[in-house]
Amino acid sequence: MTAMALVAAELLGLPVSRNWAGAGYWGAALLLWPGLARRNRIQALLLLLVGAGCLALSHWQGAEVDVERLLVGNSSLLSMLVAVSFLGLVSRPGGEDDASLPRGRRAVASTLGAVHLFGSVINLSSVFIIGDRLARRGSLSREQSIVLIRGFTAAAFWSPFFAAMAVALSVAPDARLSMLWLVSMPLALLAMGLTFWQLYRQKGGEETAPVGDFVGYPLHLGGVWLPGLLAAGVLLSHQLWPSLSILSVITLLSPLLSLLVLAAGRRSPVAGLGQLVNGRLPQMGNELALFLAAGVLAYGLESLLSSWGGTLPLGGFGATEASLTYLATVLLSLLGIHPIICIALAGSVLAPIEPNHTLLALVFLSSWAVGTPTGPLSGINLAFQGRYGVDSFRIMRWNLSYLGLMSALVVVAIWILAALLGVD
């Protein structure tokens, strides 16, 4: 919690170095390491070793290793995760049990819509609010995991509040959003429709369950008031302080909103903080270790790929080249390389041929929306593994058919957009 407070202080303009927060997170990971699940310890060690190896190789090739970046790592994302944990103090209405949760086909649709709608504004926190509400004994079913992950990541196709859009527009700043949304918003609807169809037609089996057994998220006022309030607060705060990223706004707003709700309900904020410090936060060791290790791996891969340099032998960037770029990025996500690394690399090697930025943005957003639910080392899948004990490689296997079908639809959308833009 101290590390999160340091990040929040820096966001508010106080003279606090992010290095202290990074050191705090690494120190917490070391303290919590003995209590981590064996599987998570092995995976974190592998990520650290591969990342360190990539850094060593890139340094041997002449690249400089930024020790400060290694220390800071994913401190912004981790701070958001800690901040979102405050919402657990007020996100479970008292007196409710499993009988109050909707079931069946309508529950699938309502859960998809809820996580997509709120996820498009408040990002990863929406998954945790809904996931915590659905989790039984701290875990989620295969079908619940699929719905939450796909419904959330589909927002990357179009949401201006998503990290995917920020990264895409940083590389393709001249993209025309109105033209982009003509194809990206239908892709988001198709992604959710495909998920609903796949779950609707599956039968019960050793690992699968019929759609009638699905337990989803309620869409009555008691179920949506908290994410709705947070979404409104995020939108208002982003308008008042546009220099702050959505990630930063959530980090600042979530604890404040939670403590205000506790106080308004005549519950002690101090007691709530004690409950959080002694309960939820020590349980975040798995998430903490995985995200820190993934940060080392991401930096190592980025440094290694940058040290190789080079350009592509292309004379232009039309529908064919865009489709191949998308497919290459998604395939790399299966190898554990986050789309943000692929976007940065593709942007640098494609810049000399001056691609159409709207078409390029569609490629980047689509690779993020389809690649992250499938990539075993993506942020959302690592968060699920750490928070709900759902193995990230099992999530990858569950989403392989989704990746294939959505990739076909994305390629069609790329050709449609290229035709609308008049790109050869």
From TrEMBL:
Membrane spanning residue stretches: 42-58, 70-90, 110-131, 152-172, 178-197, 217-238, 244-265, 286-305, 325-347, 359-380, 400-423
Domain of life where this protein originates: Bacteria
Keyword Membrane attached: yes
Keywords for the protein's UniProt record, in alphabetical order: Membrane, Transmembrane, Transmembrane helix
Protein name (record): C4-dicarboxylate ABC transporter
